[in-house]
Amino acid sequence: MYRINNENDIPYILNYHRARDMVNIMTFFPGLSPIDDLAIILNEEDYTSNLESLSNLTSIRNGNPVKEPCMKSIPVKEINSNKLDILKEIKKENKEGVLILFHLNVEPTERYERYAGISVGVSLGRKIYIDAVGKGFDGREVLKGIGNKTKTYFWINAFIREFIGTLYSEKKKHIIVFTIILIAIMIMIGVTYFANNL
Asked: Are 89 and 37 in contact (CB under 8 A)?
């Protein structure tokens, strides 16, 4: 078992999908984090030998090593609330899968339940991004653009903003292409001028 309270366990916790996002928000945005305690259960023996210390961790997710594609969420409410049965279901889906138990420091509401909240991705090179996601979302849907429909009158603004953002982020490429086109046009004008005046 890995526990967030143990500094030595944190590098191991960061090796699991879904748990890594939770640790990132606890580390980089402690005031925003709805999670104040977290444990990763590796197998049944892990769970049964630590049952007493896990009693306050009531929320459940599943995870797997980050070296593999993220496994689908196990629908907790369809099984039952027995955590051991949920762990067995996770192991059926992926032998490397783990049970992530955590404690919410807020009351679950309609907006924030077990499968809702904040997904944080941290990219040290360029940016830190936060996605607030609703019930039934785990962050990937936001990246795919699934969610609420965009009002038509926002499309023009969004298109212009994205166009300018793309130009700015890849300005070297755009300057090179623009220069090549400009030189090609000048050559064509010169050839046309000389061809007509000879």
From this structure: no
Taking the C-alpha atoms of residue 86 and residue 99, their distance in angstroms, rounded to an integer, is: 8
User: In whole angstroms, what is the distance from residue 5 CA to residue 35 CA?
Assistant: 12
Residue (of 94, 61, 56) closest to 76 by Cα position: 61
Which tens digits make up the pLDDT trace of 151-187? 677 778 777 888 888 888 888 888 999 999 999 999 9
The rounded distance, in Å, linking the Cα atoms of 5 and 39 is: 9
Whole-number Cα distances in Å, 193 to 74, 179, 183, 185, 198: 71, 21, 15, 12, 9
Look-up of token digits 């890849």 = 170
Domain count across the chain: 2
Same domain (yes/no): 164, 100: no
pTM attached to this predicted model: 0.55
Do 67 and 162 share a domain, yes or no? Answer: no
Cβ 59 vs Cβ 114: under 8 Å: yes
Let me know whether 94 and 166 are in one domain: no
Same domain assignment for residues 161 and 97: no
